[in-house]
Amino acid sequence: MNFPPLSGQGSLIHWVHRTWGASAAMGGSFWVRLAFLLSLGLVLGSVDASLGDVDPKYRTCVEECQTTGVIGENVISHCQSIENQNDTSVGGSWYNQEQWKQLNCKADCRYFCMMHREGERQSLGLSPVKYHGKWPFLRVSVFQEPLSAALSAVNLLMHFTGWFSFFLLVKHKLPLRPQTRKTYYEYTSLWHIYAILSMNAWFWSTVFHTRDVDLTEKLDYSSAVALLGYSLILALLRTFNVKDEATRVMFAAPILAFVTTHILYLNFYELDYGWNMKVCVVMAVVQLLTWAIWAGLSGHPSRWKLWIVVFGGALAMLLELYDFPPYKGYADAHSLWHASTIPLTYLWWSFIKDDAKFRTSTLIKKAK
């Protein structure tokens, strides 16, 4: 789908009207229109990305803070300790104490300058804007986004418990192949890898929402992209029932190459929030549509669970795209997305276990 020029509101409205009409002409399919809404959100979500951090007053404030360690009545001690230790060698390890102080200094300066600038904007009757891709949140102790951090930790726990119950099912409850003592379910190892990537992504999400520095931000974004890319591969392998190793490699290779290149781009060239959003939304929409269509065509006994996860996941993605500032400084659309994925994760692992039972039962019947 081609996206409209963003130079004027009229051209965007005309594109929306024309494209929505085209989707209706295609039969008014629910999934076609849902994909359209997600794509529209992708366009709108990248128009006003991070207006706060290009504000000259904000940038000047951050530069002065990192030099002096003072913002109004706030004194940032680790910024001053860096200033007073000019004889510290720069050639040490990345993880040494002084470099962590620099990261904390930068993060604290960004936070206090953001809150100072937002206070000025509020006094002028202006609405909040994003800074470095995120809304201005109120801290609680060391937690920069306390609600998102807590919900990320719950999602991590949900994936662990879901994977552990899946592991117990395929290894100890379902029959094993008599010759090899391996599982009948052909996708067992793929779901184990999925579980590792999921727990890794939610771990770094928890860390990032607790303490937002460049390192944790890149680890969070990279982990999320890796998970989405692998989930897309897994969706294609399962829905097309690919069991041959060589064919699996052919399916996976181009997606792995693209995801690896994208992660390298984010880490070593530019952390482009708008471009990353587009990449993630496209990968998510493709796999949601793949699972939804397959559920209808395959007649899987647990397809209703899959449809709920797909529909819920699509609605949750709309929360990510149609964003709003944090209520009372804590709850924004992103934190609500974290909350919505908790029950969906439980249902998702329930479907995976049902799929393992279904495939095992089918293969045993064929063997008899």
From TrEMBL:
Involved in the lipid remodeling steps of GPI-anchor maturation. One of its GO terms (cellular component) is endoplasmic reticulum membrane. This is Post-GPI attachment to proteins factor 3. GO terms for molecular function: hydrolase activity, acting on ester bonds. InterPro entries: Per1-like. One of its GO terms (biological process) is GPI anchor biosynthetic process. It is found in: Endomembrane system; Golgi apparatus membrane. The chain crosses the membrane at residues 147-170, 191-209, 221-237, 249-269, 275-297, 304-322, 334-352. The gene is ga11586. Its main location: membrane. It is a multi-pass membrane protein. It holds the Pfam family Per1. Belongs to the PGAP3 family. Keywords: Golgi apparatus, GPI-anchor biosynthesis, Membrane, Signal, Transmembrane, Transmembrane helix.
